[in-house]
């Protein structure tokens, strides 16, 4: 992961909006990899180090031992330790520190650096924060002496100027064409104090894991963060700051359409054949829906979603593809056709493709041993009708002879998801009899790219269809594959492969051993292609060797209400990093309704759920988002919260009553009258309490708003 990607990852994980809602246990905790302080010091170390000194530089920190500090300017309550200047209690001190952090991030984002000079927070710490939230308007050198040496070496006059001035001076003097990090590396060299390059271990600790599972109760934002995370991986240049949610989702959809992101959901019936590869029946031409009786079924080894995205991630254009280009003017005026040269399901049809490549031509199997030379469109169709029964065959013949023009381009398919050659049509239709193949209809072409295996997603926004020949929609053809400047061609030669992401929703609901099979080992970081312990296996159906590329990231989600992390397949747990997604009970987007503090309602429900069940069975903050009136609140309770509780407690309404109170759950006092029948436990059943959910909707379909709001308010007691 580049340093740009790492900075993007930080901002995606800790956006300014999250800082404003930051909780003390998020800021500092003993599970250090999830805390803000750990991100600043360790996980973003490659962006600039702030190592050294004590943990008091963070203002407040979670203690890992019971040692005391008797200095008068420090305080501790046994759990946290902090500077006494921030407050007498841990939480009040944290609130003061949070104000400073939010102010630093906000000022840096707006490129207002002067106020940061006066912020009373650890020097290196506050300027690291400023760098991370600025748009590269702060230099990533956090030692004041080193920064001033670099600034003066670049010509800044000596004096007692504030540190913010040195940052601005160095940013303003960066050469326009020089990369930011190359420039700051050079500045470090000027100080004579350039830090050692990060070791492989520290790099691994500071970058995003290749295999990650976001887990938590329902409604905690797992899908929300999965989208952000996938974008940060596949498009590191995307800036999340100040983007609307629609803009973020639009970017996700673009990357999904481009094939850089794939999505699947695990379920109990999903198997290896769906995920990796399997033998599937397919209908073979003709594809005309009116010719159903003429269709035949063949069986093909069909790649699954994991195989396909591994193939895309592995794809590296060879020399002929990198050099292939057409002008934008030609791209706009020409047409592109997909064509099949033989049936890729049949190995004996390889001779058709080989013949065409060798003889610089394309061939069509429809039309029989009949010459269509010198015929117009109507005459071509009339003659074809006498030969072919299939309506599609007649269309294919007409396309091949009359629609395909000299100067058009043909893309030769290899199945529906690959292209194996690209040619430019150079001649008109001609009829030819040859002993080498049983085809008679031909066109001359110049082969520009041949014997390749290009994922269709690199060329076209859709998959190819089974039809022998058809015109491609220019709107769906990827311009950047065909039109390149000389500079872009030169750049392509050195550009590193793009990152790809496979999102597996509900990963815990599938049988992982059955779905991954022997490939579960291959997803480990050090078992991937190009790594020291790289492994590959032979697939059972295709007999092809298979390995997992290092630029493929897997992001899973799991709902802990369905299954805890501890209950997961052991092989899966060993190979994934886990990030817990807890309810954001103080989320600022949870608004009060009619003087009811919905944040407190959520907290009360979750504390009771933790007691009766576990933290895995809480409810998320999303249940209370976008609620601005009583009707929406009623819908949230009766369409989301109560059904979730019914699932948690298997319909035990008494326990639901312990969560929501008697405003929502009522004990039925009417004693039932059983049928006349002798049963040993009849008396016990007569004493059994029965509970029902209160209904606030009257026969007129109107809600009793006052009674409903009173019930909600009573949850907090």
What this model shows, in words?
With 717 residues, the chain is α/β, with parallel strands linked by helices. The protein has four domains: 3-204, no CATH class; 209-278 and 301-314 and 497-543 and 576-581, no CATH class; 316-487, ph1033 like fold; 598-714, no CATH class. It contains 29 helices and 21 strands. Helix 5 (90-109) crosses helix 7 (123-133) and helix 19 (377-387) packs antiparallel against helix 20 (391-403). The longest helix has 20 residues, at 90-109. The protein is globular. It starts with a helix and ends with a helix. The relative contact order is 0.09.
User: Helicity, in percent?
Assistant: 25-40%
Poorly predicted regions: 194-207, 286-292
Q: For the residues shown, what is the average pLDDT? A: 85
Radius of gyration: 33 Å
- Note the main sheet: 7 strands, mixed
Number of helices: 29
Total domains: 4
Oligomer: single chain
- Beta-strand residue fraction: 15-25%
Strands, count: 21
Shape: globular
Structural class: alpha/beta
How far the N terminus sits from the C terminus, by CA atoms, comes to 49 Å
């Amino acid at each position: 992961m580049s340093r740009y990607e790492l900075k993007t990852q930080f901002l995606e994980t800790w956006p300014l909006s999250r800082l404003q809602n930051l909780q003390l246990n998020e800021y500092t905790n003993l599970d250090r990899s999830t805390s803000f302080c750990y991100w600043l010091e360790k996980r973003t170390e490659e962006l600039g180090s702030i190592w050294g000194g004590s943990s008091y530089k963070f203002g407040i920190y979670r203690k890992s031992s019971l040692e005391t500090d008797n200095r008068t300017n420090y305080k501790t309550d046994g759990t946290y330790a902090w500077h006494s200047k921030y407050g007498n209690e841990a939480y009040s001190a944290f609130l003061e520190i949070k104000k400073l952090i939010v102010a630093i991030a906000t000022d840096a984002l707006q490129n207002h650096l002067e106020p940061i000079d006066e912020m009373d927070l650890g020097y290196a710490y506050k300027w690291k924060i400023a760098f991370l939230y600025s748009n590269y308007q702060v230099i990533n050198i956090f030692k004041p002496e080193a920064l001033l040496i670099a600034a003066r070496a670049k010509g800044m006059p000596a004096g007692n100027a504030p540190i913010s001035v040195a940052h601005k001076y160095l940013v303003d003097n960066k050469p326009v064409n020089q990369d930011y990090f190359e420039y700051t590396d050079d500045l470090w060299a000027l100080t004579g104090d350039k830090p050692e390059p990060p070791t492989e271990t520290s790099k691994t600790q500071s970058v995003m894991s290749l295999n990650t599972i976001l887990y938590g109760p329902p409604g905690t934002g797992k899908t929300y963060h999965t989208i952000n995370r996938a974008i940060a991986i596949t498009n590191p240049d995307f800036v999340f700051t100040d983007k609307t949610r629609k803009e973020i989702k639009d970017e996700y959809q673009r990357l999904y359409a481009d094939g850089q992101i794939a999505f699947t959901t695990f379920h109990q019936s999903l198997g290896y054949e769906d995920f990796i590869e399997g033998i599937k029946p397919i209908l073979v031409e003709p594809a005309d829906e009116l010719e159903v009786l003429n269709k035949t079924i063949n069986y093909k080894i069909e790649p699954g979603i994991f195989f396909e995205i591994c193939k895309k991630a592995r794809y590296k254009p060879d020399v002929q593809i990198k050099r292939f280009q057409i002008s934008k003017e030609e791209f706009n005026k020409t047409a592109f056709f997909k064509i099949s040269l033989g049936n890729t399901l049949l190995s004996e049809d390889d001779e058709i493709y080989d013949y065409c490549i060798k003889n610089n031509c394309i061939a069509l199997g429809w039309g029989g041993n009949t010459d269509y030379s010198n015929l117009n469109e109507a005459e071509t169709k009339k003659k074809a009708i006498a030969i072919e029964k299939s309506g599609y065959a007649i269309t294919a013949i007409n396309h091949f002879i009359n629609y395909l023009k000299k100067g058009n381009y043909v893309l030769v398919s290899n199945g529906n998801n690959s292209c194996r050659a690209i040619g430019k049509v150079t001649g008109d239709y001609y009829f030819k009899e040859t002993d080498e193949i049983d085809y008679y209809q031909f066109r001359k072409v110049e082969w520009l790219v041949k014997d390749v295996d290009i994922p269709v997603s690199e060329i076209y926004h859709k998959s190819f269809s089974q039809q022998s020949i058809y015109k491609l929609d220019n709107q769906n053809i990827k311009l950047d594959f065909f039109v390149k400047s000389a500079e872009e061609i030169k750049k392509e030669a050195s550009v590193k492969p793009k990152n790809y992401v496979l999102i597996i929703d509900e990963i815990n609901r599938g049988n992982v051993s059955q779905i991954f099979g022997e490939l579960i080992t291959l997803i480990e970081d050090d078992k991937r292609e190009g790594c020291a312990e790289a492994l590959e296996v032979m697939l059972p159906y295709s007999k092809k060797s298979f390995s997992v590329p290092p630029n493929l990231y897997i992001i899973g989600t799991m709902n802990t209400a369905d299954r805890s992390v501890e209950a997961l397949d052991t092989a899966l747990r060993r190979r994934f990093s886990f990030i817990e997604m807890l309810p954001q009970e103080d989320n600022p987007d949870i608004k009060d309704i009619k003087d009811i503090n919905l944040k407190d309602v959520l907290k009360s429900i979750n504390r009771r759920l933790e007691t009766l069940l576990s933290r895995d069975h809480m409810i998320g903050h999303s249940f209370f988002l976008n609620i601005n009136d009583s009707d929406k609140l009623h819908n949230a309770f009766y369409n989301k919260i109560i059904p979730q509780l019914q699932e948690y407690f298997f319909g035990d309404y008494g326990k639901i009553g312990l969560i929501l109170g008697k405003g929502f759950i009522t004990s039925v006092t009417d004693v039932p009258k059983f049928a006349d029948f002798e049963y040993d436990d009849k008396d016990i059943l007569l004493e059994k309490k029965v509970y029902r959910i209160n209904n606030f909707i009257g026969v007129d379909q109107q809600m009793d708003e006052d009674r409903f709001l009173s019930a909600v308010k009573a949850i907090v007691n």
